[in-house]
Amino acid sequence: MSKNSLGDLDNLSMLDLFRMEVETQSAVLNECLLALERESGATHMLQDMMRAAHSLKGAARIVGRDAAVQVAHSMEDCIVAVQNHNLILSHRQVDAMLAGVDLLVRIAEVPEEILESWSAVHQTEVDAFLASLALMANPAVDLDSTTLPQSLSASIGGTPAVSSPSKREIAIQAPAQTELTAKSSGASERVIRVTADNLNRLLGLAGEARVGSRWLYAFTREMLRLKQYQQGLSRNLDDLRESLAEVPLSKRAAMRLNEFHDRMAIFQRSMVERLEELEQFDRRLASLSTRLNDEVLDCRMRPFADGVQMFPRIARDLAHSLEKAVRLEVIGESTTVDRDILERLKAPLDHLLRNAINHGIELPAQRKLVGKPMEGVLQIMAQHRAGMLLITVADDGRGIALEAIRLAVVEKQLTTAELAREMSEAELLEFLFLPAFTLKRSVSEISGRGVGLDVVQTMVKEVGGRVRVSSQSGQGTCFHLELPLALSVIRTLLVEISSEPYAFPLSRIDRAVKLPRAEIQSLEGRQHFTLGEQQIGLVTASQILELESPPSGEDVSIIVLGEKTARYGVVVDRFLGEQELVVRPLDARLGKVQNVSAAALMPDGSPLLIIDVDDLIRNIENIVSGERLTKIGRDEGGEVKRAWKRVLVVDDSLTVRELERKLLDSCGYAVDVAVDGMDGWNAVRTGHYDLVVTDVDMPRLDGIELVTLIRKDSRLKSLPVMIVSYKDRQEDRQRGLEAGADHYLTKGSFHDETLVTAVADLIGRAES
Amino acid sequence: MTLLHWSAAARLLDRDLPEGYLDEKTDILSAQKNVIEPGIKSVVIFRLGLEWLSLPAGIFQEVTELSRLHKVPHHADGALSGMVNVRGELLLCMALDVLLGLAQSPEENRSKEQTTKGRLLVCNRGGDRLAFFADEVHGVHRFHPRDLKEIPATVAKAAATYTVGLLQWKDKTVGCLDDELLFYAFNKGFA
Fold it and tell me: Which of A2, A152, A335, B56 could form a disulfide with A99, with the two C-beta atoms 3.0–4.6 Å apart?
């Protein structure tokens, strides 16, 4: 029955597949081009490029993107020219080829609906590009005299766009995928794509298998008890035989007794054998399910190289535009990183990289003056250390001028001049992570982009890591990002709230304490207790979560959360212990659930929820500061709202729908909207409305059909319905009224009071 | 030798028909064909408290044992009764009785029955998945839409909203629910 669970690549359109192909092959092309620019002898790269360009051409032909076919073809020509030594790839030629890669990516991103108009607008650009590449591939022409079309040169300096396939998919591969590094190619492991949904389902099943094996273990223990019981029984029989030995027995009875004894012995042997088998099977299954689980979890890991492949290109383009010489080194490309973390690392790394090239690394001439090599080195390094992922971004530039920070801190009145003078290096560097703190007076186009290092800090904090910076004047700057190895597995404290399990991330808990009820003090109706020297206010978890409060016991279990200045104690039913959990996202239909960040499964397979500590703290603060009062007020507001006249607006045009909604809303009616007739029919049956305002021409179910359905329904037949349509001929009006509409308006009537007056005529004013 | 075989074969083939064989075959051939009429619908029939209800069989993905429910904070009342684990996947669980405005059957009866006959039904309607508890599941039943009866005015308003008609099954009256509207109302509950 579960056909739908097979939602994988089959569901992707050809265009989606083409975009994936472009994503993969453009990365190959970029990488090869950069390698060839550094080292013109890397001729084996040419074959890879040829293959990539050829695949792209074929794929583009299948989806009918002719422009992409042409671009890929002209790039092939250039590669052939290089292979035949008719063309040498220097900066300018690499620029042109890279522009071609960008162009391909852009073509792939154009949505199908606007492909025609896009082609019309951009054909000249494509033609100009083709012409420039044709000139390049043709050895008879002086290369330096050929110039790129303006739009293309401009796009070279920018970020190469990364295409995003419409469906979220991830690449899975066996460990250590080091494909296409400068030295080796072709030896990479095969990579397949699996949708994130599929992988999550796999993860769920693997987890379930482990739950099953845990059950079997418990069952085996039970069976052992059974065996012992049976052994006791057998001993009883022996005792009986012994005591009967002195009694004369009939021959028949003696025979029965012996028979009983023999059968018991057979049974016992067989029981022992079966139990051994069961135990063996249990061990095998346990090991198998654990491995399966680990392996599936590993699938979420990707090599670091996957997340940084666009950086060499970005670094090169940026350095060129600043007339600096920068070499980017990526170390630890095979280090495995959780795919979610890798994805989220991109923006912060991009920011750090631009910062380093823009502000850190000096111009070649300056570097020469201070005795450094002309080419600056920028290192991005990934390694596992002590159960954490450590990412280091280091440059050998001028370093951060501490005095400049000191000045800026005082200038921005973040502290006094005296205090600033006292501050240590580490303390001063901390200021760099404040929002909108910058040492440059004008935000640079290149590295500033309106965001500061706080972006880096925010991301790192979000995933539960931390960031440090160290700097040596004249020697360089180094950023250290410490991140958890996997987002999907977190260590938690399990607790019970309202008799159901919940988990608090361990990293967010200040401490967990158990107190006798007598130690809780009360002040002005608020409860608190003393921890060390501090008075800590108490709130019950069930109150914040709006759940039933359980009967209170002897002891109070408290989790202390928050920062030093604002700490709160959250009272839970009881502590269940520490547990490592595989995090599952909440069903998307739920949206953001207040105070909850995700779900997970208990070792026994029952569901639990993971607490969103930030959310919780915010809510506690609201309660403490009396916000709950306004909440009660809001409920009263809700009462009033229910007494309002409720109108349902059904229209497939967003503009008209919103216009009508605002118009009626401003008159005090409570307005709901539906996007087509079917949606309207569903809404009108499940909600309680005083009036329906509907369009006529709509997909799925048109307005006339909707009115007919309403008039046929025994419970809705007296509901007032108004049609608002562009159709203003007499026969249209007639049709609507015959179907049972109470009123027929044309859409021109928004501009005056007609609509509002008509509504008031039908159901009265909103207030009454 | 061959002659022996031949005569044995001839005896076997020429033997008299068993008693009643012809009658039996005649009956089978002359019996009225059980033609499957076009338009036949199949539904899964289940019990919720005191009510027997049904939903189109096509939307059901599986029927499984009860599993532990976890409430979702701030969604305590309404169409969502919580989350359940079905084969390692967390699914939203619909409070069908709340949606339909059904009276709860006596508390103690319910808990006793839930352990034996109670089932968790898992639905998938065009990718929208959800689960709900039923006190008892009968199985698949086929009927022709013309056998559907009108809903009497006495049926509670909320339940009537979601019922497209009534079906006679054995000695019971089964309410056929509108799956589209049910999913709509459930999903809208969190919009």
Answer: A152
